[in-house]
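Example 192.
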Amino acid sequence: VKTAILISGRGSNMVALVEAAQLETFPAEIVGVISNRPGAAGLEKAQALKVPTAVVDHKNYKTREAFEHALHEQLLSMEAELVCCAGFMRILTPWFVSNWQDRLINIHPSLLPKYKGLNTHQRAIDAGDSETGCSVHWVTEDLDAGAVILQDSVTISPNDTADLLAARLLPIELSLYPKALSKVAKQIQSRV
Ligand code: GRF
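Predicted structure in complex with 5-O-phosphono-beta-D-ribofuranosylamine:
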């Protein structure tokens, strides 16, 4: 399944997906990485891994719709059949989401349906939760509200900070996302 990855920054989840997909038996092939930020560190990492990259800078478009049309065209030119958001920090409109329905997934750093949106770790700490985690989920019109594909958790200890939790969760994200992509790619293969 031809898969594109959308990033905005560091791109460590993107690297994990690319590396997993390099295995011959993996059911997805990464056809490109698109960033909405020209300076995203992930772009160089993708280039080092010999993956085609593109920048669709949202600042060059007057409206969210115009930006998304350009993003959509870029995905079509890469022949993407599936899209993974990996630290992609733009909210997508119903137009974009419906065009990629059942072909668009995201990783979110909480145990959804808890803590949609930003500052998830601080919110989990403030709530006194004993654990938090990450979720790979289908992207739907409502932010972070689509069905969960896979989830994994970490324990919150009394001295935890949001930064410590994020650092401890990252390797769990990096192992979860490729598993979820594999699962979804197999589902898509069996659709036809
Ligand atoms: C990850 O923690 C992801 O869950 C969140 O943003 C971070 C992206 O990190 N949505 P990276 O760009 O993959 O390194």
